[in-house]
Amino acid sequence: MTDVLLEMRDITKTFPGVKALEDVSIAVRRGAIHAICGENGAGKSTLMKVLSGVYPTGSYTGEIVFDGKPVHFNGIRDSESQGIVIIHQELALVPYLSIAENIFLGNERRGTGGLIDWNRANAEAASLLKSVGLDENPTSPVIQLGVGKQQLVEIAKALSKEVKLLILDEPTAALNDIDSAHLLDLLRRLRDRGITCIMISHKLNEITAIADSTTVIRDGRTVETLEMKSSDSALDAPSQNATQARIIRGMVGRDIDSFYPDRESHAGDEVFRIEDWTAWHPTQDRKVVDGANLNVRAGEVVGIAGLMGAGRTELAMSVFGRSYGRDVSGRIFMHGKEVRARSVAEAIRNGIAYATEDRKRYGLNLIADVCRNISAAALGKLARGGWVNGNEEIKIAEQSRRDMNIKTSNVMATVGTLSGGNQQKVVLSKWLFTDPDVLILDEPTRGIDVGAKYEIYTIINKLVAQGKAVIVISSELPELLGICDRIYTLSAGRITGELPVREATQENLMALMTKEKELAG
Amino acid sequence: MTDTKPPETRESGTAPAVALHTGTSDPRTLIMRNLRQSGIYVAFVVIVGLFAILTDGVSLSPGNITNILLQYSYILVLAIGMVILIIGGHIDLSVGSVVALTGAVSAVLVIQQGMPWWVGVVAAITVGLAVGVWHGFWVAYVGMPAFIVTLAGMLLFRGLTLQVLDNISLSPFPAEYQKIANGFLNGLLGGNGYDAFTLIIGAVAVAGIAVSGWRTRAARVRYEQSVESFPLFVLRILLVGAVIMYFAWQLAHARGLPIVLIILAVLVIAYGMVTRRTVFGRQVYAIGGNLSAAQLSGVKVKSVNFWMFVNMGFLAGVAGVIYSSRSNGAQPAAGNMFELDAIAAAFIGGAAVAGGVGTVVGAMVGGLIMAVMSNGMQLMGIDQSVQSVVKGLVLLLAVAFDIYNKRRVGANR
Questions:
Q1: Within an 8 Å CB–CB cutoff, is residue B265 touching chain A?
Q2: What keywords is this UniProt entry annotated with (chain A) (predicted)?
């Protein structure tokens, strides 16, 4: 069992200012299912991009040996020609093309004169579909299939390229339980046919169920590689749990230092509560948020922890004037009284504010100036009879600039020219100007530097000191542990736990965040 | 990714220095910014000068200036509505057909039915509003792209024009109706060989610009905003004043103050204020700048989109009145290609293809650039085909300049 198909040695990849990977090494045995796990941003995707040639040779240091030979890829085509195929979390199928057309896209089956031989293509597609256990007509358009079946089409597409190493990035994140089970089953069968597989996943029960070995990555470094199975018999429950606990420790094991400003917590009366909150995916047939209950009190910072795809943003946005999802149901209470918040305007009027995780796409008008961005969500407060008082607007903006310490020469500067941290302060200013009772901050420190993060935490502390209620959604557990009073965990759209911060540790949060629905169904 | 260093507030420590350096003191940024803002005006002056030389001054003669205004007024009216739509991220391809339809309705009522002139005006504007409601419904509430909706409208309303007119031209309008586009205010206050009233109106306009400019500047100083240096401010006011007074002088020596110019001036001032100073105007920019962000800021996107189209319909109705009055009748083919001139005016005037950027005044200057060029080339007897080529190239280069500019801004981010 020393036949190694892939070995990546001492991979180091640096982005300007950030070391994304540092001396990462990984060895994948031929014919094995190898899992890679780690927190959001640990460097898993970067590693896979190095492997597949998205980051070409020369942009990283280290060595890749595939099938016994050192390889140098300069793009996806290079790695695919060697039999390495990556299937991304966001499926890359063309919705209105047929299954067969998708399978052979860029790799068309040609007949005489360079024309596509559709009979051959459809026949080959049919046999590929059979091998992945998908009973569909190769000529039917992909858009008619559910996500689970689309995933199978992706795998069929990979098989058509004579794949030796199949990489799946979060393959079950968007799937329901039945489809997930089906997919895992397929992966086992592919392994039996000799196809090696790398699977990136957050779902520990899946990993322990299927993987032969697991590499844990944290902060751009390999923590350890675990062998999961001695023989072909599955692990029994206690040792499964032991393994999961060890993976969790590996994923989060790092020190928190005094990086967060101190705050005394004085939680008052309840400000905001949702009951039985449910939202469906806008196009797919699954619940993204499932019966969530949570509350937050005046002067309290409440965290929501969850891995990618757990439904954190979807929960927040569906609450915020139903900006996400369909068939949203549930009740919202402000100060104990039920309110209607069916549009963003209504939500704002009821004192709810939501600062998005993606400020460039959803938070700011980058081509407008600081001043206009700050006033955008409460322009009515500056207007009389529809006329905006421009001078008052500038005054307000100037005040925010001073209070928030927004670094810009003047408030007429275009927001797009500011740094990430200062843009985030503009977003916060905009929402504070609506004078909300509860502020939902989605990844408030994503992509901003250390100094600015500290400033954002200080602003949050100032807000709760004024008696506002704050909800923070974050991928970084140390951040939540550092600034929150109470933390909810979210997994697959459900609230799986609620811990006061003094009882919470990264380990028990991670365990709750990776907890699947009880395996009854 | 998550480096856990001690809370080093490097950025905040240097805040004052940063504030000083990103100020407007850097001459290079100052020039670039000003060029971007005023490039269009510079281009306008150059083009006017060029044609003044090429036509031996004929293009600046009193009669010709009056002519340019009368000939292109309806395009400028359309360009006001068009630039607002473009700022909001939409477009309207149907305005030419709507100009024809509104003029036709007016002609049928006034010429065929013998109703008073004002009934025609009211009817044309009502029809324009109805068209706007129609477009607004499909774009805002059904969620169709404006390009498709108004392309359909272009065919639809051209067809209705033919129906209304029964495929024939109607002419002539009564004198009162003709006066809308061809009339002048002249001799109200006398004058020796020139019209004193026109000069006074010109002087009032200059005074108004100076006072409002001064007040804006004073307010910005009070709120500690950066302003252009005082000599530059005075120079700008003097320059604008000189141009307006020269213009008024020329008009006063021709036939006086065209009524159309008054209509146009009122519209430009009103819409300039609406776009800059009302909640509605701000929301148009917000939607065009980042639709998702606007939505998540509580902007009622559907309603704003709807009213943008209603407004375009209103202005198309006004343009329909002016055009039918100017041509003294209604023709089945009236207004053909007007949409393209109006769109070109907005883009040459600095509106961004992706939305979120543009000004009413810019669109007016853009429209005047087209007008002066067409007029100049006509005076020079240049062939229609060549004129079309030149106009096409100017539009192309104007938008290329905009995209080039934006890339520079992007690179600086």
A1: no
A2: ATP-binding, Cell membrane, Membrane, Nucleotide-binding, Repeat, Sugar transport, Translocase, Transport
